[in-house]
Amino acid sequence: MQSGIPMAALAQHFRDASEDSTKEGRERAKFQGLLSKLCSINFLKNLALMAMF
After folding, report:
1. CA dihedral defined by 16, 26, 24, 36, rounded to 10 degrees?
2. At what angle are helices 41-51 and 25-39 packed, to 10 degrees?
3. Between these two residues, 39 and 2, which has the higher pLDDT value?
4. What is the 3-state secondary structure (H, E, C) of the chain?
5. Cα–Cα distance measured from residue 3 to residue 8, given in angstroms and rounded to the nearest whole number
6. Cα 51 to the chain's mean position, in Å?
7. Scanning 7, 17, 35, 52, which has its CA 20 to 30 A from the CA of 23?
8. How far apart are CA 3 and CA 20, in angstroms?
9. Does pTM top 0.85 for this prediction?
10. How far is CA 19 from the centre of its chain?
C-alpha cells in the first residue's frame, strides 16, 4: 500500500512553508517542526516498523 503523498513531496512542502515569508513566524516555526519530525531517524524507524505489518 502506498501513501497518497510521497514523503519527498511532503518534506518539500514543509520546507517551502517554513521559508515562506508571507506566513507568520509562528506558522513557519510549526512547519519547521513538522519537517524536523518527518526527517528524524526515530520517525523513519517507526514508519519502517509500521510498513512491515
Report:
1. -10
2. 60
3. 39
4. CCCCCCHHHHHHHHHHHHCCCCCCHHHHHHHHHHHHHHHCHHHHHHHHHHHCC
5. 12
6. 17
7. 7
8. 26
9. no
10. 14
User: Residue 35 and residue 53: Cα distance in Å, rounded?
Assistant: 25
b/e burial code for range 3-25 (CB count within 10 A of at least 16 → b)? eeeeeeeeeeebbebbeeeeeee
Closest CA to 16 of 35, 41, 43: 35
Copy the grid coordinates of residue 38: 518527518
